[in-house]
Design a protein that fits this description.
single chain, globular
């Protein structure tokens, strides 16, 4: 007798009554810190635009349980530097996907300072909690070319998001451009695996060459929308005991001493 009563109360809550059901609430959080050159930012935006309107992604959306996803596209840098390019939007087919893609292609704003993965996770988690959608899954998709060096430690932000039941996936950009080499981390893929991603089926896809970026984004989106099977990638709920997830903060301190960077 107790279970039906609880179920009835859950169904009658205002959130359930007003929310729009979708398969996935997907927050695309894209790094635009100053280590990213303008042409790299352009590749990112076009890569996401092409992936969202690709036949593979549109087909997955149309064949999903609800036939729809909710998506937002946010560019981030420092702890409080977030630029919403696409607010939460329903994609339920080709026309909606193309409309979102056009918004990305025609946006030409450039970089901001610092790299706060923790700020990006926190912003996305709050955004997911306050939007009008009810997803079968909630996913934060972090792409970036360096470790966290601003704001609270990344492990704290990740733990808070996982507590909400959110999955965090990663797209570490390891293109090794000489112009910005002092901002890079040689094992950024390992950093993402141990310090950033988390939740059931969480995964990370490293990008080693910019020519691989469009394909990597398309593959990642398909996996996120389908829902990667448990066990296919290890769940990174806690870091390895021997990996330093504060490496980004320490590198920033070293640069401030060596180069006088604020």
């Amino acid at each position: 007798m107790i279970r039906p009563l609880i179920l009835s109360l859950a169904i009658s809550t205002p959130v359930a009554a007003q929310g729009i059901e979708v398969d996935v609430e997907l927050a695309l959080m894209v790094d635009v810190s100053r280590s990213m050159a303008p042409w790299e930012l352009e590749i990112q935006r076009r890569g996401y635009a092409e992936a969202l309107s690709s036949d593979e992604v549109v087909k997955v959306i149309e064949n999903s349980f609800t036939g729809a996803i909710a998506i937002t596209y946010v560019e981030w840098a420092g702890e409080t530097s977030h630029r919403v390019i696409v607010p939460w939007t329903l994609i339920d087919g080709r026309a909606a996907a193309d409309a979102v893609s056009e918004k990305l292609i025609f946006n030409h704003e450039y970089s901001m300072r610092r790299t706060s993965i923790s700020g990006a996770i926190g912003f996305a988690a709050d955004d997911i909690a306050s939007n009008e959608y009810i997803g079968l899954r909630q996913v934060i998709d972090i792409s970036g070319d360096g470790p966290n060096n601003d704001g609270r430690p990344v492990l704290q932000a990740r733990a808070a998001a996982l507590e909400q039941g959110i999955i965090i996936n990663g797209l570490p950009l390891m293109t090794r451009d000489d112009e910005f080499s002092r901002w890079t981390l040689e094992d950024l893929d390992i950093y993402y695996e141990n310090c950033v991603i988390g939740g059931p089926g969480a995964f990370s896809i490293p990008v080693l060459e910019w020519s691989d970026f469009p394909m990597a984004v398309r593959r990642k989106l398909v996996l996120e929308l389908v829902g990667s099977p448990d066990g296919l990638w290890p769940v990174q709920a806690t870091p390895r005991s021997d990996y330093d997830c504060l490496i980004g903060e320490k590198l920033r301190q070293q640069r401030e001493l060596m180069f006088g960077e604020p």
